[in-house]
Amino acid sequence: MISATADEPLHVLDLPQLYEKPSGTDLVKALALLSLQPRTFGTSADVVKGPAVQPAGVTRYLTSIISSPLAWLETDELREAIWDAAAARLSERSGRAAMPAMSRIFNVPTSSGEEYTLTLHEPSLTADNLGMKTWVSSYLLSRRLHNLLESPPQLVPTASTDPSTSKTETPLRALELGAGTGLVGLSFAALQGKSATIHLTDLPEIVPNLAHNAALNVELLNRTGATVTTGVLDWSVTPSPLPSAEERFDVILAADPLYSPSHPKLLVDTIAPWLSHGRDARVVTEMPLRDAYLPQVQEFRRRMGELGLAVVEEGEEVGYDDWESADGGALAVKCWWSIWGWTEKV
Length: 346
Ligand SMILES: C[S@@+](CC[C@H](N)C(=O)[O-])C[C@H]1O[C@@H](n2cnc3c(N)ncnc32)[C@H](O)[C@@H]1O
What we know:
alpha/beta; Rossmann fold; 2 domains; 7-stranded mixed β-sheet; 10 helices; 20% strand; binds S-adenosylmethionine
């Protein structure tokens, strides 16, 4: 019988060896043990937990299964299932970009101490479609949102600035830019419930999965009274005609939006027409401070300032990428979160 503990990972030679003609069941169990799950970004417990099987020799073990005719197994179906599982284990070891599609569960803390559970589908990644995966800064931001939304200054709908109308306020209008799989926007929707509506946006090729993820979580969204819509909003396209005052948004959210030299300008130029001019309007962002992209973070800061926005609150925190580095260690990522408001009423 194969068994492993977190303290004592197995050696590949502890797994059933092909020369022994192991049963299909034993091979399926061994391949399940070799499954690499994505990390959960933030928990050090997961980061220190090692693999069930030591990595040395695993690739050779998997390729030997794929290239074996497995002639001693009873059925073609069993052989196919084992080859497929071995191929999947092999692609998991080729990094996230080679991973098959998967559904992942995310827990979003609420201010009452309860946690909301979101299920997000992540299709297999292709090089250009970074929005098919959930990134570490959106995980951190989703866990911080309940605090951000409550800490002063309150994010309140512009319609409620008159105290006499605050009881009949219109819902806060929120927009997420580059929403990807939708973790931040869907968390915001569930946390805000009836008091906000949110429009989750991204490029055309990303939006179908985004809409799928909104549908996957419809039960939670209905329970909390949230209103979520999804659609295309390409930062490189200037809206025409420009949004009216009613069409602008009280809150704009963006997680991990800068990974090309053109992004700081595109993003700030998109915030400009879409952010409400109310004094409570806010932009909430979180992004990794990766060395290669620091100039873009600086440019984003500068351009936001030039637009008339200033940081209301900001901070740094560390998360862990959900895929391990080549040496098997967890990749710590420093992230910067920030909340911006107008320096003066525009
Ligand atoms: C690194 S991903 C982050 C996704 C998600 N916010 C997260 O943190 O998990 C960057 C996102 O920005 C989107 N994006 C890039 N360029 C864009 C553009 N010109 N217009 C709209 N979205 C864009 C990508 O499609 C992708 O979903």
